[in-house]
Automatic annotation (TrEMBL):
It comes from Actinopolymorpha rutila. Residues 133-260 form the Mur ligase C-terminal domain. SUPFAM superfamilies: MurD-like peptide ligases, catalytic domain (SSF53623), MurD-like peptide ligases, peptide-binding domain (SSF53244). The keyword Metal-binding does not apply. GO terms for cellular component: cytoplasm. It comes from the Bacteria. Keywords: Cell cycle, Cell division, Cell shape, Cell wall biogenesis/degradation, Peptidoglycan synthesis. InterPro entries: Mur-like_cat_sf, Mur_ligase_C, Mur_ligase_C_dom_sf, Mur_ligase_cen, UDP-N-AcMur-Glu-dNH2Pim_ligase. Belongs to the MurCDEF family. MurE subfamily. It is found in: Cytoplasm. Residues 2-110 form the Mur ligase central domain. This is UDP-N-acetylmuramyl-tripeptide synthetase.
Length: 288
């Protein structure tokens, strides 16, 4: 492998790795297989990688080889000054907020590590469409905005909601759930985050798998010790999205989180065709 890239280590997949230490060890094994490394110096694990491997670093808030300044929102994403190799060059990415710029810096650092000239990398970055299911705006002809995002961990949900809150004009209505047969410890944490950072949070099913949706929802609600008046439960995901759209007014933003661009919902052991984006389009247009 030419280059391994580390972006962050956050609470996820603990049902597989058992602990954050086990999760970190699994991620670090990647760099034993790579000839060079790229790591996020804003993350303490990234700083440890820098000490052990041939590493090019990127960061928004720490000293690093590739950084960004002067972030500003533009029509289709975020513009910024990319700083690398002693230069400062205008750049842009089709995504919103610091999380998108951090990912863009990871791309730039990786391409530089591979020997691609900075100007070529920045041009290619600007030409890329936003990744499907990542802060993806659904084109509804309504006075509100709808976005779908794959955020299914506490850190991801927190980052997306904080990014949206920073630019919000109206209310934020969040629809989300947690996957069944997966890490239960993150459920109450995500409940707390959604309640704190949303004006209204509707807790629903994600991919319940073999668990009962009501039990998953109960685990999520256990974390809602404050702002309980902002939280509703609607187990059926389509009905939950319909309720969110009905609540949305002018300048409000509806975030449908957890599944992103997935084209199915896993119920029991069956993958049932389902899409958050298509569900939003159908409901917002009044189609049946």
């Amino acid at each position: 492998m030419a280059v391994g890239c580390f972006t962050n280590l956050t609470h996820d997949h603990l049902d597989v790795h058992g602990s954050m230490a086990g999760y970190e060890a699994a991620k670090l094994h990647l760099f034993d297989l790579a000839r060079a490394a790229v790591a996020n110096a804003d993350d303490p694990v990234g700083r440890r990688i820098r000490q052990r491997w041939n590493t090019r670093t990127f960061a928004l808030h720490s000293d690093a080889d590739v950084t960004a300044t002067d972030l500003r929102r533009v029509t289709d994403g975020t513009a910024f000054q990319a700083r690398a190799d002693g230069r400062s060059v205008p750049a842009s990415v089709r995504g919103f907020g610091e999380i998108s710029v951090s990912n863009a810096l990871a791309v730039l650092a990786t391409t530089l590590q591979l020997g691609v000239p900075l100007d070529d990398a920045i041009r290619a970055l600007a030409a890329q469409p936003g990744p499907p299911g990542r802060m993806q705006i659904v084109p509804v002809d309504q006075p509100y905005t709808v976005m779908v995002d794959y955020a299914h961990s506490p850190d991801a949900l927190d980052q997306v909601l904080r990014t949206l809150r920073a630019g919000a004009i109206g209310r934020i209505v969040t629809v989300f759930g947690c996957g069944g047969d997966r890490d239960r410890a993150k459920r109450p944490v995500m409940g707390r985050i959604a309640a704190e950072l949303s004006d209204l949070a509707i807790v629903t099913s994600d991919n319940p798998r073999t668990e009962e949706p009501d039990k998953i929802i109960a685990d999520i609600l256990a974390g809602v010790t404050a702002h309980a008046d902002r939280v509703r439960t609607i187990p059926d995901r389509t009905e939950a999205i319909a309720a969110a759209l009905a609540e949305a007014g002018a300048d409000d933003l509806v975030l449908v989180a957890g599944k992103g661009s997935e084209a199915y919902q896993t119920v029991g052991r069956t993958k049932v065709p389902y899409s958050d984006e298509e569900t939003v389009l159908t409901l917002a247009s009044g189609r049946t």
